[in-house]
Specification:
- By secondary structure, the chain is an alpha/beta fold.
- The chain folds into two domains: about 140 residues, Rossmann fold (3-Layer(aba) Sandwich); about 110 residues, 3-Layer(aba) Sandwich (Rossmann fold), CATH 3.40.50.
- About 45% of the residues lie in helices and about 15% in strands.
- Strands 4-3-1-2-9-10 form a six-stranded parallel β-sheet, sandwiched between helices.
- α1 links the parallel β1 and β2.
- α8 crosses α9.
- The chain is globular.
- Bound molecules: D-glutamic acid (DGL).
């Protein structure tokens, strides 16, 4: 294992930065490449076949080129659709991001859990299986909140976001039968923790939010424990398409320790 072999974190956009923040906290010495498939963003409105093809293709190319020590699919949409397939084809450990239904089931008092994700994520059997296994005696209400992906991207570019976006996301859960009893909301998209304060304001008091980033970071720390780690060059943010947004995102990327930007 080369000491400068990176952790490769992958998402459709900046959502995976919510995972990177937790990863930095537990393995600060690990060199990182953060890859965003901004040419494919958003994944949540694409078909399973499109998402699987993009994710497997890009991760295959990047793994060959950058020889990461571990790949983290820091995206619920990509993980719930393509995790098994990617694990089958890559020779490095692959850590996925799956909706935090298990911890939410342990925390809810009312027994009513909300789940906000992309349209693609909330229809996956993977989510049905998590619900059956961990929340079979609870009520899990699901809603797609595609507007939150664009809102998180805009926030990290430093742009204004219309607060109505968050009100609509909360209403999509609250307006379902039993929705007023929700006390725990699973943020099942890595973009959503980036707008958690805005969501908290829209839901009002008495709701807690749960997501998987800290658990993923612990898993990565466990899998890389004892490995030599040395950062010999600045950590890199890679994108699949160039454009004005890259300069707008630079301050947010730098706050996450990604000091260089490149195009794949
Ligand atoms: N960040 C991604 C997720 O965790 C999806 C955002 C998108 O591309 O729609 O699901």
């Amino acid at each position: 294992m080369d000491a400068d072999a990176p952790l490769l974190l992958f998402d459709s956009g900046v959502g995976g930065l919510s995972v990177l923040a937790q990863v930095r906290a537990v393995v600060p010495a690990a060199p990182v490449i953060y890859a965003a498939d901004n040419a494919g963003l958003p994944y949540g409105t694409k078909t399973e076949a499109e998402i699987a093809a993009r994710v497997a293709g890009l991760l295959g190319r990047m793994t060959e080129r950058f020889r990461p020590r571990l790949v983290c699919i820091a995206c619920n949409t990509a993980s719930t659709i393509a995790l098994g397939m990617v694990r089958d084809v890559l020779a490095v450990p692959v850590v996925g991001t799956v909706p935090a239904i298990k911890p939410a089931a342990g925390l809810t008092r009312s027994g009513f859990i909300g789940l906000l994700g992309t349209a693609a994520t909330i229809r996956q059997h993977y989510v049905d299986r998590l619900e059956a296994e961990f929340a079979g005696d609870k009520h899990l209400l699901r809603a797609a909140a595609p507007e939150l992906v664009a809102a998180a991207e805009a926030k990290l570019r430093g742009a204004e976001v219309d607060p109505a976006v968050f009100t609509r996301a909360a209403a999509a859960l609250r307006d379902q039968p039993g929705g007023e009893r929700i006390d725990t909301v699973v943020l099942a998209c890595t973009h959503f923790p980036l707008v958690e304060p805005e969501l908290a304001a829209a839901f009002g008091p008495g709701v807690r939010f749960v997501h998987g980033a800290a658990g993923i970071a612990r898993r990565i720390a466990a899998l890389t424990g004892g490995q030599p780690m040395q950062r010999r060059k600045p950590d890199l943010a890679l994108f699949t398409r160039d454009g004005a947004e890259l300069a707008q995102l630079a301050p947010a990327l730098q706050r996450h320790g990604l000091l260089e930007t490149g195009i794949l």
